[in-house]
Amino acid sequence: MICLFSTAIDQAKQGTDLSAEQTSDLIDAMLDGKAKEEQVAELLLALKRKGESVNELVGAAQAMRRHMTPIAHRHTILLDTCGTGGSGSGTFNISTAVAIVAAAAGVAVAKHGNRKASSKTGSADVLEVLGVPIESDASAVAERLDEDSICFCFAAKLHPAMKHVVGVRRKLGVKTLFNLLGPLCNPAGATHQLLGTPTPQTQAMVADAIRQLGTTRSFVVHAEDGQDEVSLSSTTKVVDVKPNQIVQYDWEPADFGLNAVTSDSLLAADPAESAKIICNLFDGQPGPCRDTVVAGTAAALMLVEKCNTLSDAVRLARETIDSGAARNKLDSLRK
Protein backbone atom coordinates (compact mmCIF):
# COMPACT_ATOMS: atom_id res chain seq x y z
CA MET A 1 0.00 0.00 0.00
CA ILE A 2 2.82 2.39 0.88
CA CYS A 3 4.50 1.59 -2.44
CA LEU A 4 1.22 2.20 -4.32
CA PHE A 5 0.92 5.71 -2.90
CA SER A 6 4.60 6.66 -2.97
CA THR A 7 4.87 5.68 -6.64
CA ALA A 8 1.79 7.71 -7.54
CA ILE A 9 2.92 10.73 -5.49
CA ASP A 10 6.34 10.74 -7.16
CA GLN A 11 4.71 10.37 -10.55
CA ALA A 12 2.35 13.29 -9.96
CA LYS A 13 5.13 15.49 -8.58
CA GLN A 14 7.05 14.86 -11.82
CA GLY A 15 4.04 16.09 -13.79
CA THR A 16 3.00 12.69 -15.12
CA ASP A 17 -0.70 11.78 -15.17
CA LEU A 18 -1.87 8.61 -13.45
CA SER A 19 -3.80 5.98 -15.39
CA ALA A 20 -7.49 5.40 -14.73
CA GLU A 21 -6.78 1.96 -13.26
CA GLN A 22 -4.02 3.32 -11.03
CA THR A 23 -6.24 6.13 -9.74
CA SER A 24 -9.10 3.70 -9.19
CA ASP A 25 -6.89 1.48 -7.02
CA LEU A 26 -5.75 4.49 -4.98
CA ILE A 27 -9.29 5.74 -4.37
CA ASP A 28 -10.37 2.19 -3.47
CA ALA A 29 -7.65 2.13 -0.81
CA MET A 30 -8.77 5.50 0.55
CA LEU A 31 -12.45 4.52 0.71
CA ASP A 32 -11.64 1.17 2.29
CA GLY A 33 -9.85 3.04 5.08
CA LYS A 34 -6.52 1.42 4.20
CA ALA A 35 -4.61 4.61 3.40
CA LYS A 36 -2.83 6.81 5.92
CA GLU A 37 -4.08 10.37 6.19
CA GLU A 38 -0.70 11.86 5.29
CA GLN A 39 -0.55 9.68 2.15
CA VAL A 40 -3.99 10.83 1.07
CA ALA A 41 -3.15 14.49 1.68
CA GLU A 42 0.16 14.34 -0.17
CA LEU A 43 -1.37 12.58 -3.16
CA LEU A 44 -4.36 14.92 -3.46
CA LEU A 45 -2.10 17.97 -3.27
CA ALA A 46 0.33 16.53 -5.82
CA LEU A 47 -2.53 15.86 -8.23
CA LYS A 48 -3.90 19.36 -7.68
CA ARG A 49 -0.53 21.02 -8.35
CA LYS A 50 -0.03 18.91 -11.49
CA GLY A 51 -3.60 19.44 -12.62
CA GLU A 52 -6.03 16.53 -12.53
CA SER A 53 -6.49 14.62 -15.81
CA VAL A 54 -9.52 13.03 -17.45
CA ASN A 55 -8.15 9.52 -16.81
CA GLU A 56 -7.69 10.30 -13.13
CA LEU A 57 -11.24 11.62 -12.92
CA VAL A 58 -12.62 8.52 -14.66
CA GLY A 59 -10.68 6.13 -12.44
CA ALA A 60 -11.71 7.96 -9.27
CA ALA A 61 -15.37 7.96 -10.32
CA GLN A 62 -15.26 4.23 -11.05
CA ALA A 63 -14.00 3.58 -7.53
CA MET A 64 -16.58 5.93 -5.99
CA ARG A 65 -19.36 4.12 -7.83
CA ARG A 66 -18.21 0.78 -6.45
CA HIS A 67 -18.45 2.11 -2.89
CA MET A 68 -21.74 4.05 -3.10
CA THR A 69 -25.13 2.74 -1.98
CA PRO A 70 -27.16 2.22 -5.19
CA ILE A 71 -30.78 3.33 -5.57
CA ALA A 72 -32.94 0.82 -7.47
CA HIS A 73 -35.79 2.21 -9.59
CA ARG A 74 -38.09 1.53 -12.54
CA HIS A 75 -37.21 4.49 -14.78
CA THR A 76 -35.51 4.14 -18.16
CA ILE A 77 -34.88 7.91 -18.37
CA LEU A 78 -33.59 9.58 -15.24
CA LEU A 79 -32.32 13.16 -14.92
CA ASP A 80 -29.84 14.69 -12.50
CA THR A 81 -29.05 18.42 -12.28
CA CYS A 82 -26.07 18.11 -9.93
CA GLY A 83 -23.05 20.23 -10.92
CA THR A 84 -19.50 20.40 -9.65
CA GLY A 85 -20.04 23.64 -7.74
CA GLY A 86 -17.14 25.94 -7.08
CA SER A 87 -18.29 28.92 -9.13
CA GLY A 88 -18.45 31.21 -6.11
CA SER A 89 -21.42 32.99 -7.69
CA GLY A 90 -23.50 33.09 -4.49
CA THR A 91 -26.79 32.48 -6.27
CA PHE A 92 -29.83 30.70 -4.86
CA ASN A 93 -30.05 26.95 -5.51
CA ILE A 94 -30.98 27.16 -9.17
CA SER A 95 -30.28 23.53 -10.09
CA THR A 96 -32.41 22.29 -7.18
CA ALA A 97 -35.38 24.38 -8.31
CA VAL A 98 -34.83 23.20 -11.90
CA ALA A 99 -34.90 19.57 -10.74
CA ILE A 100 -38.28 20.06 -9.06
CA VAL A 101 -39.86 21.88 -12.03
CA ALA A 102 -38.53 19.27 -14.47
CA ALA A 103 -40.03 16.50 -12.33
CA ALA A 104 -43.35 18.35 -12.23
CA ALA A 105 -43.21 18.52 -16.05
CA GLY A 106 -43.07 14.74 -16.25
CA VAL A 107 -39.35 13.90 -16.10
CA ALA A 108 -38.09 11.38 -13.55
CA VAL A 109 -35.41 13.08 -11.44
CA ALA A 110 -32.81 11.81 -8.97
CA LYS A 111 -31.24 15.00 -7.64
CA HIS A 112 -27.81 14.25 -6.24
CA GLY A 113 -26.24 16.76 -3.84
CA ASN A 114 -24.66 17.59 -0.53
CA ARG A 115 -24.35 20.32 2.04
CA LYS A 116 -22.50 23.49 1.13
CA ALA A 117 -18.77 23.31 0.64
CA SER A 118 -17.55 26.41 -1.17
CA SER A 119 -21.02 27.92 -1.72
CA LYS A 120 -23.32 29.71 0.72
CA THR A 121 -26.02 27.08 0.36
CA GLY A 122 -25.89 23.49 -0.89
CA SER A 123 -28.81 21.52 -2.28
CA ALA A 124 -29.11 19.52 0.94
CA ASP A 125 -29.16 22.72 2.99
CA VAL A 126 -31.96 24.36 1.03
CA LEU A 127 -34.06 21.19 0.79
CA GLU A 128 -33.77 20.75 4.55
CA VAL A 129 -35.11 24.28 5.06
CA LEU A 130 -37.91 23.49 2.60
CA GLY A 131 -38.93 20.54 4.78
CA VAL A 132 -37.60 17.72 2.62
CA PRO A 133 -36.25 14.75 4.63
CA ILE A 134 -32.68 14.49 3.37
CA GLU A 135 -31.39 11.76 5.71
CA SER A 136 -33.59 8.99 4.30
CA ASP A 137 -31.99 5.58 3.79
CA ALA A 138 -31.64 3.99 0.36
CA SER A 139 -34.91 2.06 0.47
CA ALA A 140 -36.93 5.17 1.32
CA VAL A 141 -35.19 7.15 -1.41
CA ALA A 142 -35.93 4.40 -3.94
CA GLU A 143 -39.58 4.28 -2.85
CA ARG A 144 -39.92 8.05 -3.29
CA LEU A 145 -38.37 7.87 -6.76
CA ASP A 146 -40.70 5.09 -7.88
CA GLU A 147 -43.84 6.64 -6.38
CA ASP A 148 -43.31 10.34 -7.12
CA SER A 149 -40.66 10.22 -9.89
CA ILE A 150 -38.36 12.45 -7.86
CA CYS A 151 -35.95 11.87 -5.02
CA PHE A 152 -32.98 13.51 -3.34
CA CYS A 153 -29.81 11.46 -3.16
CA PHE A 154 -27.91 12.91 -0.20
CA ALA A 155 -24.24 12.31 -0.93
CA ALA A 156 -23.26 12.19 2.75
CA LYS A 157 -25.77 9.37 3.30
CA LEU A 158 -25.34 7.34 0.11
CA HIS A 159 -21.55 7.56 -0.13
CA PRO A 160 -20.74 6.25 3.37
CA ALA A 161 -17.15 5.29 2.50
CA MET A 162 -16.34 8.99 2.12
CA LYS A 163 -16.09 9.08 5.92
CA HIS A 164 -12.52 7.83 5.49
CA VAL A 165 -11.43 10.98 3.61
CA VAL A 166 -13.67 13.71 5.00
CA GLY A 167 -11.19 14.57 7.76
CA VAL A 168 -8.20 15.06 5.50
CA ARG A 169 -10.26 17.06 3.01
CA ARG A 170 -11.32 19.45 5.76
CA LYS A 171 -7.75 19.83 6.97
CA LEU A 172 -6.49 20.56 3.47
CA GLY A 173 -9.14 23.24 2.98
CA VAL A 174 -8.65 23.36 -0.80
CA LYS A 175 -10.51 21.91 -3.76
CA THR A 176 -9.17 18.52 -4.82
CA LEU A 177 -10.09 15.70 -7.17
CA PHE A 178 -13.01 14.79 -4.91
CA ASN A 179 -14.71 18.13 -5.61
CA LEU A 180 -15.26 17.07 -9.22
CA LEU A 181 -16.70 13.63 -8.51
CA GLY A 182 -20.22 14.35 -7.25
CA PRO A 183 -21.93 14.67 -10.64
CA LEU A 184 -20.14 11.54 -11.89
CA CYS A 185 -21.42 9.33 -9.06
CA ASN A 186 -25.21 9.55 -8.93
CA PRO A 187 -26.39 6.63 -6.74
CA ALA A 188 -29.47 6.10 -8.92
CA GLY A 189 -27.41 5.95 -12.12
CA ALA A 190 -28.93 8.96 -13.88
CA THR A 191 -29.07 8.47 -17.66
CA HIS A 192 -29.21 12.21 -18.44
CA GLN A 193 -27.39 15.04 -16.68
CA LEU A 194 -27.61 18.82 -16.82
CA LEU A 195 -24.21 19.42 -15.29
CA GLY A 196 -22.77 22.85 -14.50
CA THR A 197 -19.05 23.55 -14.17
CA PRO A 198 -17.17 26.67 -12.95
CA THR A 199 -14.49 26.95 -15.66
CA PRO A 200 -14.04 26.05 -19.35
CA GLN A 201 -11.18 23.71 -18.38
CA THR A 202 -13.35 21.82 -15.91
CA GLN A 203 -16.17 21.72 -18.46
CA ALA A 204 -13.99 20.01 -21.07
CA MET A 205 -12.56 17.52 -18.59
CA VAL A 206 -15.90 16.56 -17.04
CA ALA A 207 -17.53 16.22 -20.46
CA ASP A 208 -14.85 13.79 -21.62
CA ALA A 209 -15.03 11.87 -18.34
CA ILE A 210 -18.80 11.49 -18.43
CA ARG A 211 -18.61 10.22 -22.01
CA GLN A 212 -16.10 7.55 -20.99
CA LEU A 213 -18.08 6.58 -17.91
CA GLY A 214 -21.29 6.25 -19.92
CA THR A 215 -24.27 8.52 -20.46
CA THR A 216 -27.33 8.45 -22.68
CA ARG A 217 -27.01 12.20 -23.09
CA SER A 218 -25.71 15.04 -20.95
CA PHE A 219 -25.38 18.80 -21.26
CA VAL A 220 -22.24 20.07 -19.53
CA VAL A 221 -22.65 23.84 -19.23
CA HIS A 222 -20.54 26.82 -18.25
CA ALA A 223 -21.62 30.45 -18.54
CA GLU A 224 -19.21 33.20 -19.56
CA ASP A 225 -20.31 35.24 -16.52
CA GLY A 226 -18.85 32.49 -14.31
CA GLN A 227 -22.09 30.74 -13.39
CA ASP A 228 -22.20 26.96 -13.41
CA GLU A 229 -25.77 27.14 -14.68
CA VAL A 230 -27.70 28.05 -17.81
CA SER A 231 -27.39 31.83 -17.74
CA LEU A 232 -29.65 34.67 -18.83
CA SER A 233 -26.94 37.27 -18.25
CA SER A 234 -24.29 35.95 -20.67
CA THR A 235 -23.49 33.28 -23.22
CA THR A 236 -23.85 29.72 -21.95
CA LYS A 237 -21.28 27.34 -23.42
CA VAL A 238 -22.80 23.88 -23.93
CA VAL A 239 -21.00 20.58 -24.43
CA ASP A 240 -23.60 18.10 -25.65
CA VAL A 241 -22.35 14.61 -24.74
CA LYS A 242 -23.61 11.37 -26.26
CA PRO A 243 -21.94 7.94 -26.15
CA ASN A 244 -20.11 8.38 -29.45
CA GLN A 245 -20.30 12.11 -30.01
CA ILE A 246 -19.48 15.41 -28.34
CA VAL A 247 -20.89 18.61 -29.87
CA GLN A 248 -20.27 22.15 -28.66
CA TYR A 249 -22.53 25.16 -29.15
CA ASP A 250 -23.70 28.33 -27.41
CA TRP A 251 -26.98 29.51 -25.96
CA GLU A 252 -27.63 33.23 -25.77
CA PRO A 253 -30.22 34.71 -23.37
CA ALA A 254 -32.29 35.75 -26.40
CA ASP A 255 -32.54 32.11 -27.52
CA PHE A 256 -34.92 31.46 -24.63
CA GLY A 257 -37.18 34.43 -25.37
CA LEU A 258 -36.76 35.54 -21.76
CA ASN A 259 -35.61 38.82 -20.26
CA ALA A 260 -31.89 39.23 -19.63
CA VAL A 261 -30.98 39.25 -15.93
CA THR A 262 -28.05 40.42 -13.83
CA SER A 263 -26.16 37.94 -11.67
CA ASP A 264 -26.71 40.17 -8.63
CA SER A 265 -30.47 39.62 -8.89
CA LEU A 266 -29.99 35.89 -8.20
CA LEU A 267 -28.01 36.13 -4.96
CA ALA A 268 -29.02 34.37 -1.73
CA ALA A 269 -27.19 34.92 1.54
CA ASP A 270 -28.05 31.56 3.11
CA PRO A 271 -30.27 28.46 2.74
CA ALA A 272 -33.27 30.24 4.28
CA GLU A 273 -33.17 33.02 1.69
CA SER A 274 -32.64 30.50 -1.09
CA ALA A 275 -35.67 28.51 0.09
CA LYS A 276 -37.78 31.67 0.20
CA ILE A 277 -36.80 32.56 -3.37
CA ILE A 278 -37.76 29.08 -4.58
CA CYS A 279 -41.11 29.14 -2.77
CA ASN A 280 -41.91 32.60 -4.12
CA LEU A 281 -41.20 31.68 -7.72
CA PHE A 282 -43.17 28.44 -7.38
CA ASP A 283 -46.05 30.57 -6.09
CA GLY A 284 -45.96 32.67 -9.25
CA GLN A 285 -43.68 35.58 -8.37
CA PRO A 286 -42.24 36.95 -11.62
CA GLY A 287 -38.69 38.18 -12.04
CA PRO A 288 -35.13 37.13 -12.78
CA CYS A 289 -35.10 34.14 -10.40
CA ARG A 290 -38.16 32.60 -12.01
CA ASP A 291 -36.87 33.30 -15.53
CA THR A 292 -33.52 31.69 -14.71
CA VAL A 293 -35.25 28.54 -13.42
CA VAL A 294 -37.45 28.48 -16.52
CA ALA A 295 -34.35 28.65 -18.74
CA GLY A 296 -32.61 25.87 -16.81
CA THR A 297 -35.72 23.71 -16.90
CA ALA A 298 -36.07 24.31 -20.63
CA ALA A 299 -32.53 23.01 -21.10
CA ALA A 300 -33.39 19.91 -19.05
CA LEU A 301 -36.56 19.28 -21.08
CA MET A 302 -34.55 19.55 -24.30
CA LEU A 303 -31.95 17.19 -22.89
CA VAL A 304 -34.42 14.36 -22.27
CA GLU A 305 -36.23 15.18 -25.54
CA LYS A 306 -39.43 16.12 -23.77
CA CYS A 307 -39.52 19.12 -26.13
CA ASN A 308 -38.01 19.67 -29.56
CA THR A 309 -37.34 23.41 -29.40
CA LEU A 310 -36.24 25.84 -26.70
CA SER A 311 -39.40 27.90 -27.19
CA ASP A 312 -41.60 24.85 -26.59
CA ALA A 313 -39.50 23.91 -23.57
CA VAL A 314 -39.77 27.42 -22.12
CA ARG A 315 -43.53 27.31 -22.60
CA LEU A 316 -43.84 23.96 -20.80
CA ALA A 317 -41.61 25.14 -17.94
CA ARG A 318 -43.74 28.25 -17.47
CA GLU A 319 -46.98 26.25 -17.57
CA THR A 320 -45.60 23.80 -15.01
CA ILE A 321 -44.95 26.62 -12.55
CA ASP A 322 -48.13 28.59 -13.32
CA SER A 323 -50.37 25.53 -12.93
CA GLY A 324 -49.06 24.89 -9.43
CA ALA A 325 -47.54 21.56 -10.49
CA ALA A 326 -44.05 22.60 -9.35
CA ARG A 327 -45.34 23.60 -5.92
CA ASN A 328 -47.25 20.30 -5.69
CA LYS A 329 -44.12 18.34 -6.64
CA LEU A 330 -42.19 20.07 -3.85
CA ASP A 331 -44.98 19.14 -1.44
CA SER A 332 -44.78 15.48 -2.51
CA LEU A 333 -41.01 15.54 -2.03
CA ARG A 334 -41.58 16.73 1.54
CA LYS A 335 -43.51 13.59 2.48
Automatic annotation (TrEMBL):
Record-level Gene Ontology MF annotations: anthranilate phosphoribosyltransferase activity; magnesium ion binding
Pathway assignment: Amino-acid biosynthesis; L-tryptophan biosynthesis; L-tryptophan from chorismate: step 2/5
Segments forming domain Glycosyl transferase family: 77-326
Catalyzed reaction equations: N-(5-phospho-beta-D-ribosyl)anthranilate + diphosphate = 5-phospho-alpha-D-ribose 1-diphosphate + anthranilate
EC main group: transferase
Keyword Transferase: yes
UniProt keyword Cell division present: no
GO biological process assignments: L-tryptophan biosynthetic process
Annotated Pfam families: Glycos_trans_3N, Glycos_transf_3
Residues involved in 5-phospho-alpha-D-ribose 1-diphosphate binding: 83, 86-87, 91, 93-96, 111-119, 123
Binding of anthranilate 2, residues: R169
Sorted UniProt keywords: Amino-acid biosynthesis, Aromatic amino acid biosynthesis, Glycosyltransferase, Magnesium, Metal-binding, Transferase, Tryptophan biosynthesis
Protein residues bound to Mg(2+) 1: S95, E229
Purpose: Catalyzes the transfer of the phosphoribosyl group of 5-phosphorylribose-1-pyrophosphate (PRPP) to anthranilate to yield N-(5'-phosphoribosyl)-anthranilate (PRA).
Cited PANTHER family: ANTHRANILATE PHOSPHORIBOSYLTRANSFERASE
The family this protein is said to belong to: In the C-terminal section; belongs to the anthranilate phosphoribosyltransferase family.
Listed NCBIfam families: trpD
Name this polypeptide is given: Anthranilate phosphoribosyltransferase
Taxonomy of the source species: Bacteria, Pseudomonadati, Planctomycetota, Planctomycetia, Pirellulales
Name of the gene encoding the protein in the UniProt record: trpD
